[in-house]
Design brief:
This protein has 311 residues and is mostly helical. The protein contains 13 helices and two strands. It has helices at residues 3-33, 41-57, 64-84, 90-108, 123-130, 140-160, 163-173, 175-180, 185-211, 222-237, 242-252, 256-263, 271-310; strands spanning 114-116, 213-215. Strands 1-2 form a two-stranded antiparallel sheet. The chain starts with a helix and ends with a helix.
């Protein structure tokens, strides 16, 4: 692989990582801060892509971003409502919403499973025109994604340090203490999931417009990949301020191996296997690191015993 190919792999990984890091930041809020495992992420990601694509097709590319985020808020609100008002377990609530969103997403895309954006103005084509004649002209996708991530990290950091944000963090740590402090954990859960799913909807919207298409399976496996990125980011910068941890989430989203697989013309059906391997390694790495001294001792004793038996 020559230098130009390596640079192309790096740019692809950067673009994918920045866009997907918005979903990782969403799970950082719901899973790490609120202690709720939201399995509706796949459907919400597709919902953001579908709504963003349809609004862009109608001739309003800038409005596609708040529209997709608002759709994510609605998804998060339904998920939170099932948990807090109907007594459904958070995992089951996410599965129920994710299943229902499949039909909703098809309906949003006017009964089609694919929306083509090749001849449609998007936020990326607008950025390309805006950056024409500048050194960043060929990096317009990276610029848009980086700007979205920077704003999201700033908003999330400021939000989690407000009084409401501190209440959300406290709800995830100790809901009983929150109740005794006259804070309504139902309200904080609803707000937290709405904000988190707004980020997921934004991520789906940008992904669809970057790929110039929105299809019904665009969010397939996104929750698994995002959780793996969350674990990687926690390992990289698991301690420190909210800003430091949020930056760690962004860094954890850079899937260099996945981008390399794309550049090596690997068959499309193999990409899910590559993602699964990355996820398995990311989840197993902390455990293997903890168990490595014991494994090393076992290997040492086994080799020593084999040596004595040979003599």
């Amino acid at each position: 692989m020559d230098l130009s190919a390596l640079l192309a792999v790096g740019q692809t990984a950067l673009e994918l990582g920045l866009i997907c890091s918005l979903t990782v930041l969403a799970l950082f809020l719901s899973y790490s801060m609120l202690n709720v495992c939201d399995l509706s992420t796949d459907g919400c990601f597709t919902l953001g892509a579908a709504v963003g694509a349809m609004v862009a097709v109608s001739g309003h590319p800038l409005l596609s971003i708040p529209a997709a985020m608002l759709a994510g808020v609605c998804s998060g609100f339904i998920t939170a409502l099932l948990q807090t008002k109907m007594g459904i377990d958070s995992l089951l609530a996410g599965i129920i919403v994710n299943t229902g969103l499949y039909s909703v997403n098809i309906a949003v895309m006017s009964g089609s499973s694919l929306v083509n954006l090749n001849k449609t103005d998007t936020v990326f084509t607008m950025a390309k025109d805006l950056l024409a004649g500048t050194p960043l002209e060929s990096q317009y996708r990276t610029v848009v994604a980086a700007l979205a991530v920077a704003l999201t990290v700033a908003v999330l950091t400021l939000f989690l340090n407000t009084r409401l944000g501190l209440a959300i963090r406290a709800t995830g740590n100790n809901p009983d203490m929150v109740r005794s402090s006259s804070i309504n954990p139902v309200f904080t859960t609803i707000v937290g999931l709405c904000v988190a799913n707004a980020f997921t909807g934004l991520s789906g919207c940008l992904m669809a417009q970057a790929q110039k298409s929105a299809e019904i399976n665009i969010g397939s496996g996104m929750v698994t990949i995002a959780l793996a990125s969350l674990l990687i980011g926690t390992t990289l910068m698991g301690r420190g301020s909210i800003f430091t941890r949020a930056v760690g989430m962004v860094l954890g989203a850079f899937r260099l191996v996945y981008a390399a697989a794309l550049r090596m013309n690997m068959p499309a059906f193999m990409l899910k296997l590559v993602s699964s391997i990355i996820v398995a390694l990311a989840i197993a790495l902390p455990y293997l690191k903890q168990q490595w001294p014991m494994i090393r001792r076992r290997l040492f004793y086994r080799s020593a015993f084999a040596g004595k038996g040979g003599n």
